[in-house]
Design brief:
Blueprint: E1 2-11, E2 14-24, H1 40-47, E3 55-60, H2 90-100, H3 119-124
Antiparallel strand pairs: 1-2, 1-3
Length: about 130
């Protein structure tokens, strides 16, 4: 479960996130909707410990992201699709993520070429399953 309570982030005079509270229940694929500048990316960065909140807190299964021993076994996120190597197959992308996080193989994946429309699905695939 991801819990945010009174989460806030200020960049100088700009209040990017203002006292945001929410719960994301296990096994739910969740997205943020809103106009540009609404604080969606900042909130994701706060969840993943890439920025520190100026107020409130966010926890994943009761711990801050930096306290998680093997984070990819508990939470997955895609902040920037361009961060994924464009020439890597879906199979090799997931294999690299799994190996770098101590996650063993769970079965064979079919190899196929991937359309540009399928790449965002590949990028989101590292999110843990509800049984993780």
């Amino acid at each position: 479960m991801i819990q945010a309570r009174e989460l806030s982030k200020r960049f100088g005079k700009v209040q990017a996130v203002d006292a945001l509270s929410f719960d994301v229940l296990p096994g739910r694929v969740t997205g943020f909707l809103g106009p540009n500048g609404a604080g969606k990316s900042t909130t994701m960065r706060l969840i993943l410990g890439l920025d520190l909140p100026t107020g409130g807190y966010v926890a994943i299964n009761g711990r801050r992201y930096g306290e998680l021993h093997r984070p990819l076994t508990e939470v997955g996120a895609v902040l920037e699709v361009r961060a994924v190597h464009g020439g890597r197959s879906a199979y090799n992308h997931l294999l690299c993520l799994a190996q770098s996080n101590g996650i063993g193989r769970v079965g064979a994946l079919p190899k196929y070429s991937m359309s540009s429309g399928c790449r965002p699905r590949r990028d989101a695939a590292p999110a843990p399953s509800p049984s993780a």
